Amino acid sequence: MNTKQAFDRLDLRKALGSFGTGVTIVTAKSSDNRLVGVTANSFSSVSLEPAIVLWSLQKNSPSLSAYDDCGRFVINVLSLEQIGHSRRFSSQVPEKFQGIDYHLGLAGLPVLEGCAATFECLTVQRLDVGDHILYLGQVEAYQHQEHSALIYVQGKYARSASAELQAA
Q: SS3 letters for 17-33?
């Protein structure tokens, strides 16, 4: 058990990775109308009334100013078939949207095709927290499909599956 105050960053990351998360690509548009997108697994529901979600981005991300300036974002919850999208949007590839199917949603922001779900949001709050910026967004439109969601756990991609647990 690690109880010291100064945590080993890699060990802490490994421990946090024990909690499986969905994989998303968060998209927006920069002030010069360039489409931007980053892979993120920090997505979470906050409230149903009103519908508010959150995600976070590292402060040193080259895309940070685009998310700050846009005032909007789209959460694209990836399906199992979109592992390649996750890898592409987490890389330094300059033209991330090349070869990716998408349409323009509210305010002209990219909404990826084939996702398990998408949430088009208006940024309602931006919080500076540690080494990340936390974005809270009010959901203005959403859609979902019966696709298996892509999961990330213990440093690896995984597939979602239903599990029926029997009472002992």
A: CCCCEECEEEEEECCCC
3-state secondary structure of 84: helix
Distances (CA, A) of 62 to 43, 91, 105: 19, 12, 23
Q: Is 60 within 8 Å of 73 (Cβ atoms)?
A: no
CA 52 to CA 168: how far, in whole Å? 38
CB within 8 Å of 9: residues ≥ 6 apart: none
**CATH numeric code, 26-147:** 2.30.110.10
Query: How many beta carbons lie within 10 A of that of residue 154, not counting itself?
Result: 10
d(Cα 21, Cα 114) in Å, to the nearest integer? 19
Report the 10 Å Cβ neighbour count for 83: 14
Residue 155: both structure tokens together: 């440093």
**Alpha-carbon span 124 to 136, nearest angstrom:** 6
Task: Identify any residues that bridge with 72 across adjacent strands, giving them in sequence order.
Answer: 122
H-assigned helices in the chain:
9-16, 64-70, 83-89
For 106-143, the pLDDT digits (tens) are 999 999 999 999 999 999 999 999 999 999 999 999 99
Is the overall model pTM greater than 0.85, yes or no?
Answer: yes
